[in-house]
Amino acid sequence: MHINKVEICGVNTSKLVVLKEKEKEVLLKRAAKGDKAAREALISGNLKLVLSVVQKFATRGENLDDLFQVGCIGLIKSIDNFDTTLGVRFSTYAVPMIIGEIRRYLRDNNPIRVSRSMRDMAYKAMQAKERLLREYSREPTIQELSDALGAAREEVVLALEAIVSPLSLHDPVYADGGDTIYILDQIKDPVGDEDWLDEISFKEAVEGLTDREKRILHLRFMRGRTQMEVAEEIGISQAQVSRVEKGALARIKKQL
Questions:
Q1: 108-159 tens-digit pLDDT
Q2: What would you measure as the largest C-alpha separation in the chain, in angstroms?
Q3: Residue 8 forms beta bridges with which residues?
Q4: How far apart are CA 101 and CA 120, in angstroms?
Q5: Chain centroid to CA 213: how far?
Q6: CA distance 26 to 37
Q7: Are 122 and 156 in contact (CB under 8 A)?
Q8: Residues of the chain with pLDDT under 70
Q9: What is the pLDDT of residue 202?
């Protein structure tokens, strides 16, 4: 089945309009001033961008119509919150927003249950993160999120981790009119004469860990298990796995 002939939510994707950058700039400025027609034109003219993001989640077995609708919500949020003075392409801002909206949808439909209080804290942290991102034009630190929420750093970290779905190496992280960049593309594969020395130092650092720390790191990074899967196998909570993992990695980092 050719993608150009796919129909999603009653929309024939082969007939989707694609706006040029100059057209987007004009419409974004008009939309920022409250022009509803410009806003609608931006939504219609960027549906193909939503489709390109949705395709990356197609292998998860989710209903594509649902993902497309959720992606459109992310697109609308991007249009409503985009700052035309930043000097960046709209797609550079919109793609992470669309991905984030889809990820939130997938988390909400995750069969693994998270406590209401932790979920509430996570959503507050995500809202604060988006607000600070617009304010600082960069990713806020955990301490800044903690200060904004009036909560402990550990509480914020655990809440955010509790609702995060495992990432695929083939998940998109960036797309801007050209080739999509995936998580796999950003993983460093160092090659050099000092690799063997680093490996020896790492092994020595690992030897200083407890048996439980070694087992958790082995399951997490050698077997590719999620924190929740490790917790079920060992018989402790996901929060405990997170704490042990962070502590072990911190000790290794300090020794290295």
A1: 776 555 567 777 888 888 888 888 888 888 888 888 988 999 988 888 888 7
A2: 64
A3: 11
A4: 16
A5: 27
A6: 12
A7: no
A8: 1-14, 60-61, 110-115, 162-205, 255-256
A9: 62
pTM exceeds 0.70, yes or no: no
3-state secondary structure 83-143: CCCCCCCHHHHHHHHHHHHHHHHHHHCCCCCCCHHHHHHHHHHHHHHHHHHHHHCCCCCHH
Cα–Cα dist 154/191, whole Å? 36
Q: Using alpha carbons, select from 21, 144, 256, 59 the residue that is nearest to residue 248.
A: 256
CB 216 within 8 A of CB 245: yes
Looking at residue 165, what is its pLDDT?
A: 55
The span from the first CA to the last CA of the chain, in angstroms, equals 52
Tokens of 108: 């909400």
Q: Cβ atoms within 10 A of the Cβ of 17, count? A: 11
**Contact indicator for 118, 143 with CB cutoff of 8 Å:** no
**Angle formed at CA 1 by CA 3 and CA 73, multiple of 5 degrees:** 35
Buried/exposed 111-135: b ≥16 CB within 10 Å, e otherwise: eeebeeebbebbebbbebbeebeee
- Give pLDDT tens digits for 94-111: 888 888 888 888 877 765
Kindly state the helix (H) or strand (E) to which residue 37 belongs, with its residue range.
helix 36-45
